[in-house]
Amino acid sequence: MLNFSRWAVFAILLPLAIGALCAIPTFLPESTVAQLPRFMQTRVNLGLDLAGGSHLLLEASTQDVAKQRLTNMEEQVRTELRRGDPKIAIGDISSRDGKLSFMVRDPSQVDAAVERIRPLTQGAGLTGQRDFNVEVVNSSSIVITPTDAGIGNAVKSAMEVATEVIRKRIDEMGTREPTIQQQGSNRIVVQVPGLQDPKALKDLLGQTAKLEFKLVDTTANPAEVAQGRAPVGSEVLPYPGNPSGSPVIAVKRQVMVSGEDLTDATQGYDQNNQAIVNIRFNGSGGRKFGQVTSQNVNRPFAIILDGKVLSAPNINEPILGGSAQVSGNFTVESANQLAIALRSGKLPVALTVVEERTVGPGLGADSIRAGLIASIIAVVAVAVFMFVSYGRFGIYANIAVTINVLVILGVMGILGATLTLPGIAGFVLTIGTAVDANVLIYERIREERRRGRNIVASIEHGYKEASRTIFEANVTHAIAGGIMLALGSGPVKGFAIVLLIGIATSVFTAVTFTRLLVARWVRTHRPTEINI
Amino acid sequence: MKLLKLVPDNTNIGFVAMRKWAFALTALLTVLAVGATLHKGLNMGVDFVGGLMIEAKFPQTVETDRVRTTIARLNVGESSLQQFGDPKTVQIRLPLPEQGGAGASNAVVEKTRKAMEAEFPGVTFSRYDTVSGKVSGELVQTGVLAVMLAVIGIAIFSWFRYEWQFGISTFVAIMHDVLMTLGFFAVTQLEFDLNIVAAVLTIVGYSINDKMVIDDRIRENMRKYRKMDKKALIDLSVNETLPRTVMTSMTILLALGALLLFGGHVLRGFTAAMMLGVVVGTYSSIYVSSSLLISLGLTPAAAEKKAAKKSFVGDAERVGPRDDGAKP
């Protein structure tokens, strides 16, 4: 048992050496690490609570997605039946309780209508599941109900697009190493380290950035508009900056040009040195814009962002060059933000911040310093205590703990795990518990010596008997750690990762590695008495 | 060099004889802890109740009353203030605006920041968290679930690994540890947040570690001394493992003590919970779980059967001729 073959020694030392080596880059400055070969760049990432930064959890409303889809469906049905050939007249179209229903004027056309709608309800996937169910009720009404699978697919694709849009927006802000991840079915986690102004980020992500240009309905009666009523074909929209004082305005429903036709958006200034956003349309968007503005010279058009009117300037002359200005009481910052939002496209669904955690860089640095000091003091205190309690064996345990700390950092680096503040606590706790295995072994050796066993037999027994106990005790400890990792979020997870890695490495270093050290000493010195 | 021995050789404390008293004390403390938790309640952080938490760092010591009046003028809802760590840091908690989503909570933070900067030049907002009611509800759920699953999972493990008596005694002892920790937080009114759930889970992990070591020794001794009286046997096992229990508790308390004193204010509640847990866990290993085994009627026969099945190899080696061989 105290004999280790050359291979065994190699097998014990090699992983420890690799693990410890992988910890080195963590202590080097970033610039030095960048020059190392790729496989050596195994740094432990610092969590936001240590590096400073913002963690945002954004949530999309599934109901919104479902509602939007129904609105789209209504539009599609109208186009398909009213404008298709042969024309099918419909009426009483309404979407209520998440269903779309309408009446076919001529009952003999009901079957034909269903046939025409069918292709619209087909899912895009290969599963053959329908996105909508179509039913005929009372022989002349058709009810279209979205299926769960259809809503699920729609939410899924909306979230994919949203994640992409968010990525573009954050990249445009020029922050480094953001993490953007979908969580669950309708949430997105955004983590941006070292961010100075999380407010700007939240404002940016909170914008859907759906831009539309519509003509102002000048025929509408202002009194009725104020009460929220608009003429047929128009709608009343909020207009917070209305110079006339009324917070609402009536605009035509028909969209002249929308944000989808944009190719670029930049922040600029108008002749009065007011911040504006310059936008550029693609070919077809430019043509449409030119056409509508030519026909409506001297009438106002509304610039609408996310359902709110930003401004309603007059069309002084046809705008033909394919570019336009968006004005509306901007500051330089807010104009820049809108430009970024427009460039990165509109979010398919509105997102709300349901959780935010922001840590200032100063506090993060304080925490690291405090954690480091605490770790060093903990290591020294435990080391001294082990030495006065077990002498030479205590030193072996201390060497094992030191290597253990390095290996944990190395493993974290290899796994790309993140070190958080509770992670540091996990670290300190691991230092405390790592010696537990050695304590178990050494106490066992003491016992065996008291019972009169000789030195070698005591050591052998100590290691063998204690190993089983160590295993049992650590399996249960790992159960707790595993549950934390599986269920925990943020800080709990960071703690669990360190704990689990620590359990695995400390068992190995405490049991196997110290046995190697003890065995070498016993073989070379053949002690007649051990001081333990 | 004379080595330090915290527990003298051949210590023999009659733990089992004290168990009636210990049970009474444990029961009393548990009732007090549960009572305090129900009566005073826990000082839940924004993680669990939702809301807005701002940590403000002032250049010098401030009176919380002045901060309170500054915020009261803003009309952003009822604030609750707490000096946090040092007298220069104040934690401000505000309710989340009911409507308006991200923009609204932004506005509250901005409003508070501006007012505070005007009133206290040089103040910095070192941290702020906002958690919506929906998310906080989920965090409570997963937190409770995590602790329950951990306790049950560990109890099941020790039931399968040993006997059902061990499973139950372990379960009871861990529940005791968890309740004590809750009681501690109710009495001290330290903030109870997600980090504390991690601390509680760690306590569970540590406490079980301790119990496994003693349980393992009990089982081993049951095989070794088949005729021994159960009470004496448990006393023997607890005493034999006592040096280890004390040593390990000491090293962990040393490490946690360093963290408590030097680890920064953010981790203070977390560390305090774990230190308490180590003490409570050690107590419950000795007085609750081990003593409970007797009341549950642990029989050597049951242990024997299971042990024979599981560690046959170990037994064979134990009685082998290696005992006296001085093979290097």
Automatic annotation (TrEMBL), chain A:
Top-level taxonomy: Bacteria, Pseudomonadati, Pseudomonadota, Alphaproteobacteria, Sphingomonadales
Gene behind the chain: secD
Purpose: Part of the Sec protein translocase complex. Interacts with the SecYEG preprotein conducting channel. SecDF uses the proton motive force (PMF) to complete protein translocation after the ATP-dependent function of SecA.
GO biological process: intracellular protein transmembrane transport; protein targeting; protein transport by the Sec complex
UniProt GO MF annotations: protein-transporting ATPase activity
Localization terms from the record: Cell membrane
Domain of life: Bacteria
Native species: Sphingobium amiense
SUPFAM superfamilies xref list: Multidrug efflux transporter AcrB transmembrane domain
Family: Belongs to the SecD/SecF family. SecD subfamily.
Name of this protein: Protein translocase subunit SecD
Entry's transmembrane regions: 368-388, 395-415, 421-441, 470-489, 495-518
Automatic annotation (TrEMBL), chain B:
Domain Protein export membrane protein SecD/SecF C-terminal: 119-296
Alphabetical UniProt keywords: Cell membrane, Membrane, Protein transport, Translocation, Transmembrane, Transmembrane helix, Transport
GO molecular function: protein-transporting ATPase activity
Any matching Pfam family: SecD_SecF_C
Annotated membrane topology: Multi-pass membrane protein
Superkingdom as given in the UniProt entry: Bacteria
Keyword Zinc-finger carried by entry: no
HAMAP family: SecF_B
Assembly and interaction partners: Forms a complex with SecD. Part of the essential Sec protein translocation apparatus which comprises SecA, SecYEG and auxiliary proteins SecDF-YajC and YidC.
Family from the record: Belongs to the SecD/SecF family. SecF subfamily.
Protein name in the entry: Protein-export membrane protein SecF
Annotated organism of origin: Sphingobium amiense
